[in-house]
Amino acid sequence: MNITVVGTGYVGLVTGACIAEMGNTVCCVDVDPAKIANLEKGILPIYEPGLDTIVRDNHGSGRLRFTTRLSDALGDTDVVFIAVGTPPGEDGSADLRYVLEVARQIGSLLERPTIVVNKSTVPVGTGDLVTQAIAEQLAERGVEVAFSVVSNPEFLKEGAAVDDFMHPDRIVIGTDDPHARQVMSELYAPFIRNHPRTLFMGVRDAEMTKYAANAMLATKISFMNEIAGLCERLDVDVENVRLGIGSDERIGFHFIYAGCGYGGSCFPKDVKALISIAHQTDFEPKVLQAVEARNEQQKHSLFNKIATHFDGDLKDRTFAVWGLAFKPGTDDMREASSVVLINSLINAGARVRAFDPVASETARREFPARWFDEGRLEIVEGQYEAAIDADALVLVTEWKPFRHPDFKALKRLLKTPLIVDGRNQYDPVQIRREGFSYYGIGRKPIAA
């Protein structure tokens, strides 16, 4: 098929590259000339394991091309994916201006029957708005062109997006159009050849499914973090509780790790958007509001433990931070717990020396330049360099190189043998044996 993907961000680029990998001809469109120029050179705007190889290979073969002009792509397109951002507004609602602008552009250019697919995460009812926007443009032009709007939400995990797209656990397609259903089935058939698992439903159902999925996962995380808070007060190790409840197949082990809060581009934004949708329908989303509130509070947990340990005196102390990305496998720092922690430490008069395997450049853009100039924040090139003469080591992101560190080297490097573990990565018994003080999430503190 000939496919157009509008938007070369996280979702759009993965979608375009993976569809091209299956032999389709794909044109990715973006309004940013610099981004398109870099993609032509094989320079990607995001870090995602394996994506660079697929992009370069398919671009080199001619199956994947890039342009800033939608008109260059639509001429022979069978399916056009809308994969632009839906950033949250001040009230948490999803901003649909980019989605609807693309819809209007499609309507102003459409010349042949086309299926328009909403790949962006959008509120219930967006399919109707996109249909209306395209139809209005066609009416203004005085032409009739058959088109169908489909909802096809993505379920990609950052850090594993390529594998998720190539081997999906399910494909959700929202449409009532038999022709659109057939075309989308053919498009995705190579991805589910061995285990068909496509779910067809209405457009509004598919839109809601995406929000409900992310809200459920966020709920599991916030629930476990709330249990962790109770565990700390009752002298209970939340890790044992996690094993005990995760063994129940009705609950399972996924997303029940206590930690310092969830972040990223999806969970925070989508929970807020679903809360906003609920309020617009005069429905009180008590559970969702609690999920968001617990997560916001949880992001301050590491700073609170550090402040308690040092009796609130953090001025001129130095803290080593391991991990800046919101999760391993990505350089994405949107809504990351590390941002809340570093802001709090520096505002309390402390200095921070941080290390992340891939998010260094993202971090340099995230924080004020004056902090770097004044020496209040330093991004270093090695994980042990971060620990030199630091008053504590704080683990924020559970990258693999942090899982089994050289504790003897850390003890020599740190000014104070203190580890604050935001992901319960370390065994308290081993930590005590190595001579460290230790704070985890939902665990009893250990004194050196």
Walk me through the structure.
With 448 residues, this protein is α/β, with parallel strands linked by helices. Helix content is 43%, strand content 13%. The mean pLDDT is 96. Strands 3-2-1-4-5-6 form a six-stranded parallel beta sheet, with helices on both faces. Helix 4 (97-109) runs parallel beside helix 5 and helix 8 crosses helix 10 (267-280).
Which residues sit in consecutive blocks of at least 5 with pLDDT less than 50? none
Radius of gyration: 24 Å
Which strand order does the major sheet show?
Answer: 3-2-1-4-5-6
How far is the first residue's CA from the last residue's CA? 63 Å
In DSSP terms, counting alpha (H) and pi (I) runs of 4 or more, how many helices?
Answer: 17
The count of β-strands is 14
Q: Which percent band covers the strand fraction?
A: 5-15%
Structural class: alpha/beta
Question: Biggest β-sheet: count, sense, barrel?
Answer: 6 strands, parallel
Given the C-alpha coordinates, what overall shape results?
Answer: elongated
**Average pLDDT:** 96
Q: What's the helical proportion of residues? A: 40-55%
Main traits of this protein?
single chain, 448 residues, alpha/beta, 6-stranded parallel sheet, 17 helices, 43% helix, 13% strand, elongated
